[in-house]
Input
Amino acid sequence: MLYLVRYSEIFLKSEWVRRKWEDRLIRNIKRVLDCRIRRERGRIWVITDDPNAKEKLKKIFGIVSFSECHHCKLEDLDRFVVDFCRMIGIEKAKTFAVRVKRVGTHDFTSQQKAAEIGAIILRNFPNLKVDLDNPDLTIYVEIRDDDCYLFSEVIRGVGGIPLGVEGKLVSLFSGGIDSPVATWLMMKRGCEIIPIYFDCSPFTDESTLKRAKAVAEVLREYDPDFELRIVEHGEFLIKLKEILKEMRLESYTCVLCKRRMYRVAEEIAREEGAKGLVTGESLGQVASQTLDNLMVLDEACRLPIYRPLIGFDKLEVEELAKKIGTFEASIMQAKECEAVPKKPVTRAKLEKVLEIEEKLEPV
Ligand code: ATP
Ligand code: MG
Output
């Protein structure tokens, strides 16, 4: 099969950047699809026998839309267009339109050719009518010199920019509804992700880890190199709980827990050359995600922290999770963290936090 792939935003760039982004997009296509690629300015052609090609192309960042095309030579176009119409079941439609685009020198205009093809279709399928404004079906014909490409469907891609062109980020990846969506949004904007799951057992258990792995599996469909890393976090939490109990500051558990996550994530980011962190926080969504608390969290990490969901409502995040495909896995039964206190602090004080951390061994 032959696919015409259209990409976004790349054309906005300078020649050099465009080349680099195109190279990356092609590499990303080849990673998931056994195919041959041809490129022309502003267009990529993918030639493949993979029966799942459509599903795969729908999950490659940077592709705005694509079409399954049929090819013929210009001299055969009049005959071929009838076969093509049968192939796509044009009889099911009541109205149609023909749109022609041309590259190269020809002795006809695009409009003339469209009218000609329209007449051929009408002759062969007399029950159809032409409707240029709101047709049931559109026949697109791209003529490039003496090659013609026919298609009738423009399939929407996921959009965004090619994965990897912006470099790496470390994601704090819990497997809940939010962090996978936040992660996906950064992937969509070209970031390669190192996802880290902090294992809080005994406060969580196997079910929580299993959920994170299942969600990561969904994101692997967008990036085959998406590999969940697991960091032990339970021992730290046990120690933290002891100290907070003594100090009667249990309400600070979540803030201190997250600060350790941020510190470890920063270390990994520096080792891996990643340029920041991404988390699923959304302002005010839960007691711990207040401006005061986020300020105290940010202080634990020198790298930029990206929170693409900061302005999203819960419902909006859920809708997006469904669209991306992570929702089902994220709502799997999983043990909620038992270290969470009854009343988490909403206005954590940095001085208090630092005082508590003095008592913790450096991690
Ligand atoms: P999520 O839906 O992503 O679990 P949440 O709304 O439940 O988030 P919190 O539990 O307060 O919110 O977590 C805030 C953010 O901290 C998460 O979005 C995630 O980025 C990170 N985080 C929380 N727990 C973990 C964990 N066990 N491992 C990795 N990251 C975590
Ligand atoms: Mg959570």
Residues 174, 176 surround magnesium ion (ligand 2) (CB under 6 Å). The chain has a mean pLDDT of 95. The radius of gyration is 27 Å.
